[in-house]
Amino acid sequence: MVNQYEVTSASDLRYVEATQVEHPSGTLAGLSLCTQEDEKLGSVNGVLVEPASRRIRYFVVERPKTLRRRHYLLAADMPASIEAGDGKLRVMAHEEDLERFDSRSVRTFSDDDLITAMFAHPAA
Questions:
Q1: What's the rounded Cα separation, in Å, for the pair 64 and 62?
Q2: Which residues share a beta bridge with 72?
Q3: pLDDT digit string, tens, across residues 28-64
Q4: Which one-letter DSSP state was computed for residue 36?
Q5: ∠ at Cα 74 (85, 1), nearest 5°?
Q6: Where are the domains of the chain?
């Protein structure tokens, strides 16, 4: 299986906290990430965006482990729906689709990234 995270260079991606990502009924903060079968995969911690293409490439998923929380990536190119009433983001994915993620490998979205996104050609 090809690691999708390696296909898009980490240097091209920026982290945006879930509290900063808005959708019609609020932000991604506090949403549980679940499969279509209602299996909880974790909580949405943020997203990785590619400023030049203005696209969300990955959801950053936080999963509790005994003493510390671990972060994983889930590709954002699959069908998903937000059920704001029950605080769930449902995706067509399963636990084995999560990839371990080290947040130190990606920079936080900056003002320079905002300028790049504003003046980039529209995404196809």
A1: 7
A2: 61, 100
A3: 998 999 999 999 999 999 999 998 888 999 999 999 7
A4: T
A5: 145
A6: 13-110
Q: Tell me if residue 120 falls in helix, strand or coil.
A: coil
The pTM for the full model equals 0.81
Nearest Cα to 93, choosing from 75, 105, 110? 75
Backbone CA torsion sign across 6, 91, 16, 72: negative
Asked if residue 124 has pLDDT above 60, the reply is no
For the chain, the straight-line distance linking the first and the last C-alpha, in angstroms and rounded, comes to: 26
* Second CATH level (architecture) for the domain 13-110: Roll (2.30)
d(CA 16, CA 45): 9
In this predicted structure, what is the pLDDT of residue 43?
94
pLDDT of residue 1: 40
* Cα(113)–Cα(48) distance, integer angstroms: 12
